[in-house]
Amino acid sequence: MSKPKVLIAFYSRNRNTELLARAVAEGAMELGAEVRLRRAREVVGPEVMRQAPGWLENAAAMNARYEAPTPADAEWADAIVFGTPTRFGSIATELKAYIDGLGGLWFQGKLNGKVGSVFGSASSKHGGNESTLLSIYTPMAHLGLIIVPLGYADAVMFKAGTPYGATHVSNRDADLPDDDHLAVARFQGRRVTSVARALHAEREAAAVPA
Hints:
The chain is an alpha/beta fold. It has helices at about 15-30, 45-50, 55-65, 70-75, 95-100, 105-110, 130-145, 180-205; strands spanning about 5-10, 35-40, 80-85, 115-120, 145, 165-170.
């Protein structure tokens, strides 16, 4: 069969979510996936971004590294993995804007049956990581994605992350994701890819005339 195609669409302001995204990509590629790593774009102007130290500079650097996600990326993918920092206990506006832009594909039913998964980061302990990941399950269900959580299917899950997806707490951006948190993200990439491959193989088998 062809390689599973995995889209990782994320938003990151201070690199924490970006590093998780890269680890998810590494895990997916370990199982032979073709990966598109995309960063959602800002919805506010430079005057607002300058109020948060480093935001404008980090955005420019990351936007140079990653293309913006498009509906065509979602249509291409067998699996879509969303990544976001928590914003008041929920999804970042920048990533939500991308999801909202998938309405045309939703209307045509072109996302039904694709794999969906989520990961995220928060600035403080109990800052909303789990509620943020769960909040993204709702639009994924509406899009028709088959939601793939992590559970405790790998020993690393007893060290870091959540059963809903990889996470990280940056302690006000003082700490980058450590080895255990990155290992959870890599496991997520592998898990999503293995499920996407199995579903794709089933569809291919169903398409073969008896």
